[in-house]
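Morning!

This is the sequence you dropped in the shared folder:
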Amino acid sequence: MSSRVKTLIGVGVVVLAGVVYQVFGTATIAVTSEPPGAIIRVDGRQRGVTPRERLELDSGSHHLEIVHSHYEPHVETIRLSRGDHVQRHVTFKAGEGVLKLLSNPRGAWVEINGERLPGVTPTEAEWPSGEHVIAMGQAERHIVEERHVLKHGQTLEVNFNLNIDPHGSVTITTSPRDAKVEFIGEDVAYQPKMRLQIGEYAVRVSKPGYVAQEFRHQVRYGDNLHHVDLERDYGSLRVVVNPQDAEVSVRYAEGNLQRRRDYAGDAMRVPVGKVEVRARALGYRTAFRSIQLPHAGATVRFDLQPISVEPGREFADTLAGGGEGPTMVVIPAGSFMMGDAEGPPSERPLHRVSLTQPFAVSKFEVSIGDYLAFLDATGRALHERLDPANATHALSYVSFADAVAYADWLSERTGEKYRLPSEAEWEYVARGGSTGHYFWGNDEMELCRYANIADRSTRQVYRDWETLNCEDNMVRPGPVGSYAPNPFGLYDVYGNVAEWVADCGMPEYADSPGDGSPVAEGLGCTTHGVRGGSWDSQPIEARSSYRNTASSANDDRGFRVVREL
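The structure's back. Tokens below.
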């Protein structure tokens, strides 16, 4: 072999050795992860956990796996050359597994990390891998809470035994029945027959106007019943008024009833809570005050102001938004004898009523035209049997609530106080100073001159009816103001339509106040008074003292309004 050949062979060996070294020599890799603690596998062999700053590998291709039990694994193929130093950082993404949730007994609610799952056990939920706090509970069972680690791709069964948490039912009855029951320091809202854990509880029963009671209540197995009677809490009310001879009345709630008492000049013992005090004297403007009487008591002072009005003056208040309210007539203060000593029991006893405060009353019964403005403003509809073209006709087919709503609307649009008259106010203005059956006396044959009632015109349509033998030329409700007025200048106080008044039902006159205020009033009554008779009434029903009640709207019922001065 020649030296040249030997030289060439030597060079080839060196080159081949270099290639082998480049291919099969060593390299290093650094592996970190977030979170740390992941297992590092190279070519299926575990080579440590993260962080690993220097891991020597042969040059060439390798299968790298970085695995954390909670997350999706990181897998890749890396190619290394001699002397390489490669860095790998893996931020793991949350994996997903399945939680199979069971309980004994079945039907428990489940919360994972405080989030309530829909449905109850047994149930399954796909959930991000990782560590989780799992809680289960059921009515009258102890809540169980544990930490569990869900691995990526794992189906983890979690099964809790829920032990009995002893309870009893609790019912606390009270007098008054609407008193408030509270469990002090407990996040529970009381309901009759509610279930509470066995044990002792602090309870408070209270209602405004009553002395609250606090006590310890022991809840045992079974039904736990307890009754509490609250005592009415009282305070001392003193009223100072000028002039000293003014009449003072006090109103307050007693259970579900409204009580009214006259103030006698000395301190009055009154239930705490809302108290209304009214002072009145002839020639002075009536004063009114509403207070919350405390247990310590209170003093109410009035300095009544003289009032001067022009009886018979007519006016109409301007409505906000345009138009005018009904024409009103000023009625003077005065006294009269209310009822009929020879009438039915509902009209007895004959008794004196003193209206110390002048007021205004609508000259006519409220007409369809008056009411249309209210309907337009409030979005209500006229009764289907009424024709808006008959704007001057007396309004009918209105309930007591409709009449109150109209008066409230007038108050809102004028800034003045409108309302329905009390029975006493109505009879006072209807009589016009008379003591007879009618404001002209006792002759019923005069009715056709002043009123639209059941007469010969009515009998032409309703042939079986008993009617008065005179002619008023109307059958059903007609235009307001069609007949002669009474001495106060009011029209249609008898007939046309009967008129709603504020009083509830037909209270006995023995209970009625002497100041003309309603015995009871409001929308909570089942019936309210109606006065004056209507187009279908007999003469007896049109008398000033005649009393009747109704509960709903009809074609013979309307109203007129009062405005306080």
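Headline: Residues 337 and 352 are 4 Å apart (CA to CA).

More detail when I'm at my desk.
O.
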